[in-house]
Amino acid sequence: MDGVVIRAAPVGREVCERDTRRGSSSSS
């Protein structure tokens, strides 16, 4: 559920990019 909150937040965008680098292509 935290993931959704982070996405809505402005910083969530940067976090999403970091997650993708880690290998969590959940956003993709």
From TrEMBL:
Annotated protein name in UniProt: Uncharacterized protein
Species the sequence originates in: Arundo donax (Giant reed)
